């Protein structure tokens, strides 16, 4: 029976077992009122963590060899179990995060949708990357042996969720879904800002493991402090990769730990991004008020607590840019602060805006009003020019929450130069007309080296989960810009290729056997051979 809010236990789930920690107790809190939420969650110790990772290692042999149908059914079962909890999941997440019902209902749909999308990937099987170079015994001067390649899962994976997506970047979120789809058992470090939500989803996932008849070590949910249990998890020799979404500080601490291990492992950390927007003159010839209102909506949605929120906007100097700036001020004045995720995040946002406003050459463009609840500071937009921006590192830092900086530029050359000075970003957004194409052509090569996703029109918030999406980008947007944490390509992070040379057919894994029993598409001598076309 899947757990609901009314029967939360306050315990970790270690390989299917509900286990009380030996350490301190932490409570979630309603950020709108400051009220502590029951139950308290007991934090586990290193021995208890080691039991979870040992179980994950035990589970790896059978889980990594699951056939595509059983594997995909398991992922779909997780989605079904999450939905079966019903509205109590959304209610608990609302209480713990202050996010709205509509936002969390949408996020639940995204979470179950990405699990089902990965199920389709697993059924179809292209991620196994089958390549076959058949033997060429007659080749001269030397014959070629039979070489077959496929990708295998890395081993148990540690996953850390973020506070701002209690479902889609948390217990059964994108990293967990990608790792499980790859065939890797997961040990998930619960986020202490939404412990009850984590337990509800964790139980739904652990139930799916049991219902599918899998080894219980396929999934564990552990409660502990990041700086202690999170670090111990990344250092555990069983763990073969880390998936992380959160702050730059915590992400870098995990990268350092993983690199210092006797056997280093990859860390896929999504960290900080300010998501520059480039407004061109042509885009400001249309409905400037509509553009400004849409921008303010993107900055303030979810209290600005989105990793893709537009924190920087390049606005041309001159009357069109002035009109946009004035319109932003008017649109912002109609907004009110919304409850932020935690008191600490709200305090950090206030400190960040105060610091930015105090910098020489930075001025206030406009503010909304404070919200009616606690931890709901007034949204803010500030302004400066390119020279000031380039001269001061403080202006390049992410302020997590509803704030943005408008940078006035005076020429296309200045804009392209400034773009080249930006740190790595998740996104870069262009608002342009046909008249701007010549400038954009010179800007695009710069942006390709800076960002993981380049948009024309629209706003970067709202990330489609699909096959072509990249939610990644150069450092510090991520610790490894070669990949993505959203979309089906994310599965690649938890796989590695193995080649088999001249193995007898019955010793080969199913994906590589001559009869192709799993009906996989394969690269035969480099040429793609679709399963339906094979003899
Ligand atoms: P966070 O404070 O970094 O926490 C994330 C997780 O890391 C938590 O489970 C936390 O444990 C753990 N942790 C903290 N310090 C650690 C350490 N030294 N070693 C190991 N683990 C540690 O981040 P957050 O508050 O959840 O999220 C807000 C930040 O994430 C913002 O800066 C935002 O921009 C960023 N973010 C980025 C993306 C993206 O895709 N790039 C997406 C969402 C959010 P505790 O529970 O014990 O603190």
UniProtKB/TrEMBL annotation:
One Pfam family per UniProt: Aldedh
Residues annotated as domain Aldehyde dehydrogenase: 25-431
Enzyme Commission (EC) number: 1.2.1.4
Enzyme class: oxidoreductase
Annotated keywords: Oxidoreductase
GO-annotated molecular function: aldehyde dehydrogenase (NADP+) activity
Stored CDD domains: ALDH_KGSADH (cd07129)
InterPro entries: Ald_DH/histidinol_DH (IPR016161), Ald_DH_C (IPR016163), Ald_DH_N (IPR016162), Aldehyde_DH_dom (IPR015590), Aldehyde_DH_Superfamily (IPR050740), ALDH_KGSADH (IPR044151)
Name used for this protein in its record: NADP-dependent aldehyde dehydrogenase
């Amino acid at each position: 029976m899947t757990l609901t809010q009314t029967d939360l236990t306050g315990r970790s789930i270690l390989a299917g077992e509900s286990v009380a920690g030996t350490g301190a107790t932490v409570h979630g809190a309603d950020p709108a009122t400051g009220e502590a939420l029951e139950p308290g969650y007991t934090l586990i110790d290193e021995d208890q963590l080691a039991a979870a990772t040992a179980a994950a290692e035990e589970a790896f042999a059978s889980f990594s060899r699951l056939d595509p149908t059983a594997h995909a059914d398991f992922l779909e079962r997780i989605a079904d179990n999450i939905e079966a909890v019903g509205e109590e999941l959304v209610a608990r997440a609302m209480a713990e995060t202050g996010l709205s019902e509509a936002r969390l209902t949408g996020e639940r749909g995204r979470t179950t949708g990405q699990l089902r999308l990965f199920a389709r990937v697993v059924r179809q099987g292209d991620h196994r990357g089958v390549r076959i170079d058949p033997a060429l015994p007659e080749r001269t001067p030397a014959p070629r042996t039979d070489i077959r390649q496929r990708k295998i899962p890395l081993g148990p994976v540690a996953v850390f969720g973020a506070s701002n997506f209690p479902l889609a970047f948390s217990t059964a979120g994108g990293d967990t879904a990608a790792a499980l789809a790859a065939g890797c058992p997961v040990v998930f470090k619960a986020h202490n800002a939404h412990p009850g939500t984590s337990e509800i989803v964790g139980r739904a996932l652990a139930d799916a493991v049991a219902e599918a008849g899998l080894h219980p070590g396929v999934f564990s949910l552990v409660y502990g402090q990041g700086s202690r249990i999170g670090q111990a998890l990344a250092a555990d020799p069983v763990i073969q990769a880390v998936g992380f979404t959160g702050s730059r500080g915590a992400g870098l601490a995990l990268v350092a730990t993983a690199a210092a291990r006797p056997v280093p492992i990859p860390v896929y950390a999504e960290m900080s991004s300010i998501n520059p927007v480039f407004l061109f003159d042509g885009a400001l010839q249309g409905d400037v008020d509509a553009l400004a209102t849409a921008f303010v909506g993107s900055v303030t949605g979810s209290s600005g607590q989105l990793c893709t929120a537009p924190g920087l906007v390049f606005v041309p100097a001159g009357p069109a840019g002035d009109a946009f700036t004035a319109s932003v001020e008017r649109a912002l004045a109609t907004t009110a602060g919304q409850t932020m995720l935690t008191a600490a995040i709200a305090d950090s946002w206030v400190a960040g805006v105060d610091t930015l406003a105090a910098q020489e050459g930075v001025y206030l463009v406009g503010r909304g009003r404070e919200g009616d609840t606690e931890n709901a500071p007034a949204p803010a937009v500030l302004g400066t020019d390119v020279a000031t921006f380039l001269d001061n590192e403080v202006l390049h830092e992410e302020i997590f929450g509803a704030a943005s900086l408008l940078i006035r530029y005076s020429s296309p050359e200045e804009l392209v130069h400034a773009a080249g000075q930006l740190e790595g970003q998740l996104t870069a957004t262009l608002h342009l007309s046909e008249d701007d194409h010549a400038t954009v052509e010179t800007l695009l090569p710069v942006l390709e080296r800076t960002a993981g996703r380049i948009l024309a029109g629209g706003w970067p918030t709202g990330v489609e989960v699909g096959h072509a999406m990249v939610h990644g980008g150069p450092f510090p947007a991520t610790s490894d810009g070669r990949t993505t944490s959203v979309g089906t390509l994310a599965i690649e992070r938890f796989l590695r290729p193995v080649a088999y040379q001249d193995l007898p057919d019955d010793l080969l894994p199913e994906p590589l056997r001559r009869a192709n029993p799993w009906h996989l598409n394969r690269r035969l001598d480099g040429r793609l051979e679709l399963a339906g076309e094979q003899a």
